[in-house]
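User: Please fill in residues for this 686-position structure.
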C-alpha cells in the first residue's frame, strides 16, 4: 500500500459514499501499518504530523459516514462509552501461572525432570524475560480482535475488550503477512514503561491523588477501568508470547508461535533465545539480571519453556502450573535504611502485626516506607529495634521485608521492642496464640471492622470500586458503618458529609455497592473473611455447594468432601459459621444479596468420562495439545505413560516404546482415523 495513492484533495463534503468506503479502507490499512512500525517495531517511517493528518482524515470520513465505522478501525483506539461493570468471561483455555524459583539448583533439577520425561536425545528450551505486568487473553476471530480478558483466577477473568483496543501495540486486526486463522487466542502481558509510569505518578500527585506503588499496579488499574477513554490516556504496551487456542493453524514449537505472533503484528518478548543446556540457561539469567536496570520496563526473572509443543503435552500440568516451564526469578533488590519507629497494626482477624516505619528508601524503582515485622517471634529472632539500621528487600508484589539489622559500633541501641498487652485500638487485653498476638474483641474492635470492610470490598471479594482502606476508616470512624451489612444502607447524602467526597464520587460508591448485590458466590464467600478461606478455597466451596445456604448447613464431613479442605480447615469453617455473632452478621449480609451466581463447570463429565488416553508419535490432523484438549472436553484424561489404567493409546506416525508397552499390556491401540471417530461420539442430549 502506498500512501501517495490517497487523494486528500477531495474536500470532505464532496466525497461520495462509495469513494468514502474505498478511502476509509485504504486509510485504515496505511494507518495500521504506521502504527505497527511505530509501536511494535519502533522504526517509524513518517512524521507524527503526517500520521496525524491521515488519522484526522479517517476520523472525519467516519464522522460523515458513520456506517463505515468498523470495530477494528484505528479510530476506535480512543475508547468507547463507559461501562457500569466488567463482565466475567471464561478463558478459552486455562491461563495457568508459572512455578518459580530463585535457586539455580532447582533449575538443574527442572532440567533433569524434563529430560527424563521427554525421552528425547536433546531438549530445546525457549528463554524469555519474565515481564512484570498484567496477563491478558486476546481473542481474534477471522483476524479481528473481538475479546480481551484479564487473567483473573486463570479460568475466568474480566472482559476488558474496549480497554485493550486503546493499547497501540495490540493489533486490532492481524497483519496478513501470514494466513489468518479462523480463531486465535493469544496470551500476552500488558505493561507500563517505567518512564511513563513515573510521569503518570507525577501528574496524579499534582492533582492531589494517590500515586501507584509500582508499574504493575498502575497497569492493572488502567486495564480494569470502566471508562476506556481513561485507559486510552495511559501509556500501556502489550507483548504477546503464547497461543492459548487456535483453529485453522497449528504449531509444533513455541519458537514458531513467537515468529507467527510477530508476523501477525504483535510485539513479542525481546531477546527470546533457544538453548539446549542448563549452563546456557544460567548464562541467560545472569545476563538479563545485570541488564535489568537498563530496560524501560520491569522484569522479575526469566521464563524457561520447553520449546517442543508435543513434548509439553507429555509433561502436562498441575492445576496451577505447567510442568514444562519454570520462572527463574532474580534475587530481590535490597537497600539499607533506618527504622524510625515500630508501630502496631490491627488486622481484620484481630492479629496485632508489628510494622517498621522506615526512612523512605527506593528499592528497585519503588519507594518503601514501611515493612512488616510479622509477629512477636520474628521480631525477637531478628532483634529489630527502633532506630536500627536495617537491610530491606522487595520481592515482586510481596510487602517489603526487613532482612537483617546492620550492626553499628558507636551507637547505643534502643531497648528491645515489646508487643503491647492491650489492643492499641480498643484497649482489650490481648491473647497469645503461638507466635501471634491477638485482640479477641472481634465485633467491638473498630480496626477489625475496617479490615473486614476492606476485605469484603477487595478485588477478589465483591470488588467494590472506591471502597479502600481510607474510605473504610472514615465510614467506621464517623459511625456510618457498624457492621458489613450497613454498607448497603449508605446514602449519597451521608457520603457527601465525608471529606474527599463530591457528588460524583458519592454517587459512584453507592452505585458500586448496590451493583455488587448481584455477584458470584465465590466472591461473596471470599469476602466474608471465613478463616482459611482464600480465593481458591472460596471457588472450590462455591463450585461444590452452589449456594450459601448449602455451605452454611454443611457439617464437617460434608465440608471435607470439598477438594482441598482437610479436617482442620473444616473445623475452623464450621466454628466460624456456628459462632452466633458471625452467623448473624453473615446472614444479614446474605439477605441483602440479590443474586449469587455459580458458573456451570463440567469438568471430567462427558461421553468419554474417566477414560485415559496416551498419545505417541506425530498426529497429522492436529497437534498433541489440541488432541488432548479435545478429549478433555469430552471428560477423558491424557497421561504420558502407558499403564494398566490406560484405556487407549493413540498411535501417530513414528510411535515407539509406548506402542510396545501397550501391546504388552493389551491396551487398545487406535490409529489416528479411529481416534478422530472417537472424538465424534454423540454428546447425550439434554
Ligand atoms: S508463559 C503457563 N512467558 O508470569 C505458562 N509468562 O508468574 C504461561 N509472564 O501470569 C506463561 N512474562 O503473566 C510466560 N515471557 C513470559 C512471561 C510470562 C511474564 C507472567 C504471566 C504469568 C506470570 C506467572
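Assistant: Residues filled in for all 686 positions:
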Amino acid at each position: 500500500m502506498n500512501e501517495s495513492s490517497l487523494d486528500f484533495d477531495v474536500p470532505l463534503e464532496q466525497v461520495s459514499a462509495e469513494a468514502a468506503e474505498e478511502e476509509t479502507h485504504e486509510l485504515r490499512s496505511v494507518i495500521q501499518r504506521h502504527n505497527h512500525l511505530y509501536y511494535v517495531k519502533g522504526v517509524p517511517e513518517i512524521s507524527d504530523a503526517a500520521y496525524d493528518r491521515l488519522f484526522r482524515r479517517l476520523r472525519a470520513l467516519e464522522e460523515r459516514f458513520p456506517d463505515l465505522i468498523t470495530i477494528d478501525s484505528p479510530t476506535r483506539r480512543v475508547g468507547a462509552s463507559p461501562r457500569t461493570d466488567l463482565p466475567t468471561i471464561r478463558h478459552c483455555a486455562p491461563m495457568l501461572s508459572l512455578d518459580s524459583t530463585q535457586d539455580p539448583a532447582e533449575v538443574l533439577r527442572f532440567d533433569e525432570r524434563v529430560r527424563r520425561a521427554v525421552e528425547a536425545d536433546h531438549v530445546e528450551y525457549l528463554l524469555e524475560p519474565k515481564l512484570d505486568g498484567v496477563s491478558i487473553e486476546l481473542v481474534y476471530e477471522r483476524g479481528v480482535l473481538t475479546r480481551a480478558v484479564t487473567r483473573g483466577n486463570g479460568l475466568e477473568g474480566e472482559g476488558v475488550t474496549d480497554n485493550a483496543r486503546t493499547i497501540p501495540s495490540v493489533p486490532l486486526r492481524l497483519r496478513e503477512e501470514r494466513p489468518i486463522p479462523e480463531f486465535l487466542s493469544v496470551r500476552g502481558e500488558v505493561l507500563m514503561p517505567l518512564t511513563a509510569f513515573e510521569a503518570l505518578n507525577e501528574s496524579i500527585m499534582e492533582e492531589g491523588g494517590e500515586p501507584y506503588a509500582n508499574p504493575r499496579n498502575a497497569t492493572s488499574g488502567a486495564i480494569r477501568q470502566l471508562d476506556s477513554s481513561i485507559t486510552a490516556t495511559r501509556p500501556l504496551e502489550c507483548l504477546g508470547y503464547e497461543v492459548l487456542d487456535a483453529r485453522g493453524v497449528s504449531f509444533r514449537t513455541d519458537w514458531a508461535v513467537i515468529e507467527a505472533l510477530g508476523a501477525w503484528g504483535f510485539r513479542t518478548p525481546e531477546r527470546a533465545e533457544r538453548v539446549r543446556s542448563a549452563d546456557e540457561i544460567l548464562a541467560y539469567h545472569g545476563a538479563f539480571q545485570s541488564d535489568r536496570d537498563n530496560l524501560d520496563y520491569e522484569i522479575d526473572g526469566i521464563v524457561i519453556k520447553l520449546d517442543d509443543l508435543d513434548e509439553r503435552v507429555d509433561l502436562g500440568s498441575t492445576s496451577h502450573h505447567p510442568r514444562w516451564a519454570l520462572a527463574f526469578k532474580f534475587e530481590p533488590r535490597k537497600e539499607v535504611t533506618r527504622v524510625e519507629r515500630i508501630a502496631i497494626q490491627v488486622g481484620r482477624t484481630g492479629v496485632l502485626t508489628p510494622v517498621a516505619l522506615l526512612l523512605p528508601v527506593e528499592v528497585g524503582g519503588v519507594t518503601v516506607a514501611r515493612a512488616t515485622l510479622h509477629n512477636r517471634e520474628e521480631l525477637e529472632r531478628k532483634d529489630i529495634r527502633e532506630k536500627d539500621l536495617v537491610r530491606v528487600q522487595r520481592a515482586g508484589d510481596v510487602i517489603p521485608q526487613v532482612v537483617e539489622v546492620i550492626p553499628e559500633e558507636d551507637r547505643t541501641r534502643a531497648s528491645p521492642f515489646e508487643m503491647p498487652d492491650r489492643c492499641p485500638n480498643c484497649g482489650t487485653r490481648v491473647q497469645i496464640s503461638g507466635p501471634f498476638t491477638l485482640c479477641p474483641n472481634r465485633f467491638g474492635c473498630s480496626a477489625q471492622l475496617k479490615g473486614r470492610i476492606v476485605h469484603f470490598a477487595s478485588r477478589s471479594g465483591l470488588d467494590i470500586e472506591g471502597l479502600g482502606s481510607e474510605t473504610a476508616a472514615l465510614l467506621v470512624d464517623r459511625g456510618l458503618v457498624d457492621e458489613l451489612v450497613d454498607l448497603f444502607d449508605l446514602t449519597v447524602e451521608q457520603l457527601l458529609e465525608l471529606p474527599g467526597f463530591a457528588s460524583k464520587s458519592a454517587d459512584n460508591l453507592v452505585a458500586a455497592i448496590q451493583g455488587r448485590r448481584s455477584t458470584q458466590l465465590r466472591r461473596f464467600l471470599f469476602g466474608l473473611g471465613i478463616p482459611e478461606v482464600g480465593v481458591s478455597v472460596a471457588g472450590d466451596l462455591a463450585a461444590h455447594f452452589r449456594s450459601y445456604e448449602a455451605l452454611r448447613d454443611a457439617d464437617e464431613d460434608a465440608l471435607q468432601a470439598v477438594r482441598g479442605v482437610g479436617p482442620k480447615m473444616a473445623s475452623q469453617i464450621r466454628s466460624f459459621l456456628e459462632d452466633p455473632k458471625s452467623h448473624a452478621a453473615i446472614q444479614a449480609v446474605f439477605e441483602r444479596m440479590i443474586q449469587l451466581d455459580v458458573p456451570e463447570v463440567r469438568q471430567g463429565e462427558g461421553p468419554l468420562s474417566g477414560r485415559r488416553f496416551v498419545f505417541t508419535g506425530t498426529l497429522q490432523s492436529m497437534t498433541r495439545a489440541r488432541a488432548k484438549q479435545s478429549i478433555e472436553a469430552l471428560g477423558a484424561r491424557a497421561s504420558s505413560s502407558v499403564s494398566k489404567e490406560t484405556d487407549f493409546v493413540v498411535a501417530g506416525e513414528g510411535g515407539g516404546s509406548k506402542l510396545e508397552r501397550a501391546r504388552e499390556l493389551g491396551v487398545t491401540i487406535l490409529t489416528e482415523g479411529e481416534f478422530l471417530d472417537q472424538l465424534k461420539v454423540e454428546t447425550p442430549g439434554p
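For context: Residues 17-41 form the longest helix (25 residues).
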